[in-house]
Amino acid sequence: MDRILQMQIFVRVAELGSFSRAAEQLGLPKTSVSEAVQQLEHRLGSRLLHRTTRRVELSSDGQQFLRRCSELLREFDELQQLFKPGDQQLSGVLRIDMPTGLAKNLVLPRLPDFLQQHPQLHLQLSSTDRRVDLIAEGFDAIVRVGELKDSSLIARPLGQMKQINCVSPAYIQRFGTPTRLEDLARHQLVNYSQQLTTQKAEFEYLDGAVLQRIRMPSQITVNNAEAYSAACLAGLGLIQLPESGARPYLHSGQMIQVLADFNAPAMPVNLLYAHRKLMSRNLRVFSGWLGQLFQAGSVAAGRST
Lower CB count within 10 Å: N or C terminus of the chain? Predict the structure, then answer.
């Protein structure tokens, strides 16, 4: 078996800690994956992986080899990219995870044009509001909305999403329309928390350049974008969401904007990936296409981070 392929297989097994999962993601028989690693170990004269019934772990030599192997594969990938025509069609599989709202309102409606330009590319698109593990779950990149926490991942900024405050006609009929910040103490807020924690519901707004928070009453907490909008439509409270995500509801009269002078800060959108030098041409072109969608002002997504 080709030595480069053996190293690629070894890296994937090491990252996932599983021969079976590596074989599934690489589209190879599990026996081929196991044989590739065994041949590599035989050639090096060293045990790279410790195999147990539950998990595969790196040996001390394996840890050192993984670092050097990853560097070599990055250089090899860059070398290949140097000789590919810029207009060459993309091919292979690209695995991306992004929030539900972005997938539904931004990417999927415009995806036919992109895939028509690259008919040999197969996009595996995961849309969920939970935080996936990029390495363990085998994603090439993930798209995240909101401020980033400390991470070893590389972030490429894609754009910003302006937020506005909305309620439904049913809510106004029951509670009235908030027109001042002082009114919020008598109103309800739909609380958003990915972990469904007991954190207090807070209305956020910018006072100049300073972020302010006002604690509000709330009877419901949700953990995904679809439920967040649905709760507002049902009259359960005020929500703060991207303007373009609210646009269809505003046009149909299902939502009404309130407190226009007290909006939450715009939410940054970033593409995250594991290694800068390992960014494949597929990912580079796709991320550039995503960036163009944001620059064109065509973003429409529900609240999600």
Answer: N
Tokens of 152: 């070893």
CA distance 119 to 89: 8
pTM of the predicted protein model: 0.66
Nearest to 58 by CA among 70, 74, 75: 70
The Cα–Cα gap between 151 and 165 comes to 30
Distance CA 98, CA 161 (A): 15
Q: What is the CA radius of gyration of the chain?
A: 24
Nearest in space to 268 (alpha carbons), one of 150, 166, 164, 144:
144
289-303: per-residue pLDDT in tens?
A: 998 888 775 444 444
CA nearest neighbour of 258 among 201, 181, 193 = 181
User: What are the backbone dihedrals phi and psi of residue 281, each rounded to the nearest 5 degrees, phi first?
Assistant: -65, -35
What pLDDT, in 10s, does the model give residues 54-108? 788 999 999 989 988 887 887 777 666 656 665 567 888 889 999 888 888 788 9
